[in-house]
Amino acid sequence: MGSFLSASNAQLDEIVGGVHNSGVRYFWVARGDTSRFEDGFGGDIGLVVPWCDQLKVLCHPSVGGFWTHCGWNSTLEAIFAEVPMLTCPIFFDQIPNRKRIVEDWKIGYDVKKENDGLVTRDEISELVQRVMDLECKEGKKMRKRAKELQEACHGAIAKGGSSDENLDAFITVFYKGIAVKKLIP
């Protein structure tokens, strides 16, 4: 759910129950209090770990969806990996990032209710099943758009791409600033 903020305990219990009840295989990174994951929670369909290399996991071909708090780094990693998202923003930039993912780019589903009410495990289970359904027409369109965004992302970081050029420009300005400081006593 993020490095600093998290869902309420009641909401987290619903998320855990919904993901488990979906019957979909999952990989879950659980920081902090992991008591709700004890007693064989994952069973034969889930694996719960305290940490992982998120980008490496998202790039694995068996990953079909990503539950995210919509932090910008997580959003970019999911796009880079071409993975549709279930969005559950909590605060700050996560809210407009959710809008980009769900409404603008149409590469994810919104999990959080408008009135900030508790999202039930049944609703969560249905959303997890929907994002993982490879035969769903809506899901196919979502995956196609995710592929298009991934290609744009790869183009941006390639030699001569926008990110490549912006990084070069930043480094140039940075070094010019250092050179100017050395000249001024």
UniProtKB/TrEMBL annotation:
<dbReference type="GO" id="GO:0008194">
    <property type="term" value="F:UDP-glycosyltransferase activity"/>
</dbReference>
<keyword id="KW-0808">Transferase</keyword>
<protein>
    <submittedName>
        <fullName>UDP-glycosyltransferase 87A2-like</fullName>
    </submittedName>
</protein>
